[in-house]
Amino acid sequence: MVRESILLALVALPTSTLSLHTSPGLPFVINTWGGPFTAATDAAYLALINSATVSALDAVEIGCATCERNQCDGTVGFGGSPDESCETTLDAMIMDGTTMKSGAVAGLRRVKHAIAVARAVLHHTRHSLLVGDLATQFAVENGFVEENLSTEESKRRCEEWRARNCQANYRMNVEPDPSTSCGPYKPLPLDQSALAWAVAQNPEPPSHDTISMVAIHSSGAMAAGTSTNGASFKVPGRVGDGPIVGSGSYVDGDVGGCGATGDGDIMMRFLPCYQAVENLRRGMSPTEAAEDAVRRMLRKYPDISSGIVVVNKKGDHGAAASGWTFTYAYRGGEMNATAVVTVPPLTAKDEL
Ligand SMILES: *[C@@H]1O[C@H](CO)[C@@H](O)[C@H](O)[C@H]1NC(C)=O
Ligand SMILES: *[C@@H]1O[C@H](CO)[C@@H](O)[C@H](O)[C@H]1NC(C)=O
């Protein structure tokens, strides 16, 4: 599957000639990132094609769970993105575009299948978001098993991070100096000059990928979801954009859906997926809707890394990115394989 997608990526035309990505038909699945993430696209698409009883919500769960099991590029599921204490915690959210119901977990500890726990929140509570150890307790009540989310690989990455004086590092305005030293840290009096843009610095660009997926059932019903293990070497307790409705993903089956990845700490301040779906509602194409959402962030944070995929209810799709070359994967209609689209970054200069 990976080999097929690489071939497709190689033969893909430059995106400029493909800016109108028309729908290949329904059912349809789209998600952030190509490469190993195409296994998720295929799993979700094939589930929709092969069984009449698989819903759009099921497909999103199946797709995201594929990355949680095989770890995709290490940024989803167990054994990735250790925090300062070397622990891996998971964030996930799933949303039903028909009812607008959503379920999410954040900072989930010791349970591997975050997207399935998020779905249990959707179906078995009237809430939208459970966090931390108490989300773990809820998961166990719902039949999930507690497991160690650390692996030899995540332990090694964390030890290497400590050996390089805990660089890169998300702390600011603390002592000892977080750009040269490990903690424990104490807060410093706030210096206005240091405050405003420090978080825009990107400590380790490739560390915050995420799978965000939108699925459209042949009936037209839509769902969206996100699963991630967050940012590497984050401050323990940190929750990113993944489990936030309208940020990590969003869907309104009357209009379309969106999935996001990138600097979640910043992106969650802009609700880019809510923005993109509202842009669709107001008549923009998927590409225009995505570009507008990314530009809103770029205007304030010129160094932000972001990538968002947008699809309307017919399956026409588009994307936009900043700070990195983004890829996304999709498969729909009668496509024999998942296609990967490369999206060059918009730059802050485009805003001048
Ligand atoms: C979890 O796995 C890691 C890596 O194999 C190991 O170092 C650690 O001791 C384990 N933790 C527990 C609580 O079993
Ligand atoms: C899919 O595969 C079939 C049989 O191998 C082939 O005839 C068809 O052209 C392929 N369709 C696409 C869209 O590649």
TrEMBL record:
Keywords: Autocatalytic cleavage, Hydrolase, Protease, Signal. One of its GO terms (biological process) is proteolysis. Gene3D superfamilies: (Glycosyl)asparaginase (3.60.20.30). One of its GO terms (cellular component) is cytoplasm. Residues 1-19 form the signal peptide. Belongs to the Ntn-hydrolase family. The record marks 209-210 as: Cleavage. GO terms for molecular function: N4-(beta-N-acetylglucosaminyl)-L-asparaginase activity; peptidase activity. This is Asparaginase-like protein. The active site is at residue 210. Substrate binds at residues 238-241, 261-264.
